[in-house]
Design brief:
transmembrane; transducer; Gonadotropin-releasing hormone receptor; two-stranded antiparallel sheet; disordered C terminus; Rhopdopsin 7-helix transmembrane proteins; GPCR_Rhodpsn; disordered N terminus; G-protein coupled receptor; 406 residues; mainly alpha
Length: 406
Amino acid sequence: MNNINCSDLYIANLSLFDNISREPCLQHAPELTSSAYSRAIILAILAILSFVGNVLTIISIRKNRVHRGLRQHSWNGVYTLILHLSVADLFVTVFCLAGEALWSYTVEWILGNMSCKLFKFLQMFSLYLSTFILVLIGIDRFLAVRYPMKSISTSSRCCKFVIGAWILSAICSLPQMVIFHLEKGPFIEDFYQCVTYGFYTEPWQEQLYSCFSLFFMFICPLLILVTTYVSTFLTISRSDRMFKSEVRNSFHTHFDNNRRRLIHRAKMKSLRISIVIVAAFVIWWTPYYTTLIIIMFIKPDEEVVQELLRVIFFFGMSNSLVNPLIYGAFHLWKPRKQSSNNNNSSFRDRSQASTPNHKSFRNYTNPIRREEETQLVLLENESSRNGNGYSHRIVRSNTTRSYRGS
């Protein structure tokens, strides 16, 4: 066995190399290389950025909740989902990005066997949890637009689904505790590594577990996200056509038309974030799992594997850096100018709300705009069923709490 094979058996951390026979190897143990050092630096930078982004998202959610103060009943459950997504992404940051950065720098596994098993479990757990929470948000978006009264973002339903996501993530990650273990390398020096060597007795066993992870962490979530967001897009498109037709006919007052414009903007916001979510999930995870399939089933030569690993090693896990940017930009970080206009011109806006001044109306109705867009969709759906018009909807928006987060 040459020196490269001995090193790759323990450094690559992929069971692809487990079929290499453990014949006596008199080479020295692997040491830190320039490529491994560069990989550690890149992972560390991604970990820092991801940590800062997710912490800022959590702080923003906390401030949003404190700002509501006595109105805890109006807390929208979608923020709870985003909060748990940020927590899951923090796990990914610590155990996947930062953990892999430290491991690349130390080269060998410097902790014990139980730490090896726990570390691999937490890595997979964090990835499952982040993906499952992302799927919950997609389902919630779909239900909120299509079936508003069945949204999962009420406080009780949301907690149940989130707890279910945590439990399911733990169950799916349990095999990691059994598969990975500490092994001593066949080198002159004492060299230990956290590997899967010796667990699989047949190639199909490894392929079966890889397919299990591929299905539950990528294929199934992707199908759910695409299905829910395409359905959401179609629902919003139909509503958009109705909106334009009603505005052209001008059956309602200026106040009603502006109210409809707010509804239209809220729906378009939901559509934009839907497209970005699916695109980010596909862009960051497709290269990772494509490479996994190539390694597991096509069995390319060692040089090809190393090139693939150099290209995609930061994909997938770095999705935890993108999520705070997406949800923070669309849900949490509000422009200060808008808030200032609300505080300084509330009386003027109220006195001019009945005039055709769109700017005044926008400031006057801004408290309504702060409610989640699904409340607006709910109001429109109710009106289309009972035919009572927008005056009825305006009363309901101020006197009932049927929106998500009740």
